[in-house]
Design a protein that fits this description.
about 230 residues, mainly alpha, two-stranded parallel ribbon, 5 helices, about 65% helix, rod-shaped
């Protein structure tokens, strides 16, 4: 008699579990490409233009410092030749040597100033990029959540980056569950007049993207050659 009762209890528990499982809707998962949204965002494109301009100004200043340094080197060589000229008087040679030493110190100071300016410029640009990226990803995430909730999603996966194993974070997904373009469209609704719209794909450019790397600043004798 006990065995049939146990069996009935087991069947009842199984039936209750089945009812609960049916009552709970299956989670809806959507996929988004955060990198694409960031790269194509109109604010990212505007910031990249500003960074390119700031980089050009820094590079122009370094180029001018290089020209000034080349002029000092030419003056140093001229003084050195005067100091070694056999027809020069001892006083003229002594004065040329002293002037050459001062010019050499001036060259070293200018070189240090140039290198420091280049290093500081890179640091400023890097800090600016990191702050911009952090702020933008926070704002984009809010829009992603809004769109995902509107579509009834309970989980959002970012497909843009690789996992710790170096493989794509999302191996497969049905394109019908991707909301990237929907997020871009949502972002464009708040786009200020006069600014370029976020595009469906990143605009081609030979310059580094705003959130990827610091724009290059070339310093002869300091910047490693590729």
């Amino acid at each position: 008699m006990k065995k049939p009762i146990h069996t009935l209890l087991s069947l009842g528990a199984f039936g209750a579990a089945a009812v609960i499982a049916q009552a709970q809707p299956a989670p809806k998962i959507v996929v988004v490409d955060m990198a694409k949204i960031f790269d194509t965002h109109y604010e990212t494109q505007a910031e990249k233009a500003k960074l390119d301009d700031a980089t050009k100004k820094a590079q122009d200043q370094i180029d001018q410092m290089n020209k000034d340094g080349d002029a000092l080197v030419a003056q140093y060589k001229e003084l050195d030749e005067q100091a070694k000229n056999p027809v020069s008087t001892p006083d003229a040679k002594s004065k040329a040597v002293a002037d050459a030493q001062k010019k050499g110190q001036e060259i070293q100071t200018k070189l240090a100033d140039r290198n420091k300016f280049a290093q500081d410029s890179r640091a400023v640009l890097q800090d600016r990029i990191q702050k911009f990226r952090s702020l933008m990803l926070e704002e984009i995430s809010k829009v992603v959540v809004t769109v995902a909730k509107r579509k009834g999603a309970s989980l959002v996966l970012d497909k843009s980056g690789p996992s710790l194993l170096g493989v794509p974070s999302v191996i497969y997904y049905d394109p019908a569950y991707e909301i990237t373009d929907d997020v871009i469209a949502e972002i464009n609704q708040n786009r200020p007049a006069g600014t370029p719209a976020a595009s469906a794909s990143p605009a081609p450019s030979t310059a580094p993207a705003a959130g990827v790397s610091v724009p290059a600043i070339t310093v002869p004798g300091v910047t490693p050659s590729k």
